[in-house]
Amino acid sequence: MENSEKTEVVLLACGSFNPITNMHLRLFELAKDYMNGTGRYTVVKGIISPVGDAYKKKGLIPAYHRVIMAELATKNSKWVEVDTWESLQKEWKETLKVLRHHQEKLEASNCDHPQNSPTLERLGRKRKWTEKQDSSQKKSLEPKTKAVPKVKLLCGADLLESFAVPNLWKSEDITQIVANYGLICVTRAGNDAQKFIYESDVLWKHRSNIHVVNEWISNDISSTKIRRALRRGQSIRYLVPDLVQEYIEKHNLYSSESEDRNAGVILAPLQRNTAEAKT
């Protein structure tokens, strides 16, 4: 299959990144290898989108710090970048809206920069074409619009399984995410993503748009475990990028006090979806 026939894909990872870990970065590499390996897709970019403070998750430090750490972590990446749009929103934004924002942004960018036919570069030159030749060239002279890359949600199996948590997700949002965008789910040790997909009617219906990536090199690093180690004064070196570790130490970001942040506060999606369910 020629490269021009492949669907270009942008991987979008939403989450707390509290803090970002080497595992988060590995998700992108694993997903890219898998998608490119299918022969049907070409991954052109990865986007890390830290959630805003209004998410109200327990232990969530300010987005300002989480964004900077993500930027430090991706400093040397040639294809993964950090986007601040979601983190700057005053209200919590559903993942579906974040996906939609980035897809629309790509579409707008594509309209602004259409891929023109090389022939257009010669339009200003003096021509001695006959009318017949000129007519035959009309179609080739028209701007050719390049296909817009497709945004797909990159996640771990834990996010996939969170679809089953009552009121955490709107059922219509789950349907639109898997139907209109698609998931690339990287499995962790102890997760059975395929079984979860099989047990969900919605996920099963759109299973062709859900790509399950098996991570054969086991890696159980999580932000929760990183924060626990920091609270106990234990080393986190080689679990997060060096620049991220230095930033955490410089600003003394994680402690027993920071872990109590938002304690007793109901998570934003649970608040919103529970209230809407009652109306």
Could you give a quick summary of the protein structure above?
By secondary structure, this protein is α/β, with parallel strands linked by helices. It has 12 helices and 6 strands.
Supply the key terms.
globular, 6-stranded parallel sheet, 279 residues, 12 helices
Describe the structure.
The structure is a single chain. With 279 residues, this protein is an alpha/beta fold. It contains twelve helices and six strands. The protein has a six-stranded parallel beta sheet with strand order 3-2-1-4-5-6, with helices on both faces. It is globular and about 50 Å long. 30% of the residues are buried.
Strand content: 5-15%
String of helices and strands? EHEHEHHEHHEHHEHHHH
Unreliable stretches (pLDDT < 50, length at least 5) are 116-136, 138-142
Structural class: alpha/beta
Please list the strands of the largest sheet in the order they lie side by side.
3-2-1-4-5-6
Terminal residue distance: 51 Å
Task: Report helical residue fraction.
Answer: 40-55%
Q: Compute the average pLDDT.
A: 88
Please state the CA-atom Rg, rounded to the nearest Å.
22 Å
Topology, element by element:
Layout: E1 7-15, H1 22-37, E2 41-50, H2 63-73, E3 80-82, H3 95-112, H4 131-141, E4 150-156, H5 157-162, H6 171-181, E5 183-186, H7 193-199, H8 201-205, E6 210-213, H9 223-231, H10 242-251, H11 256-259, H12 268-278
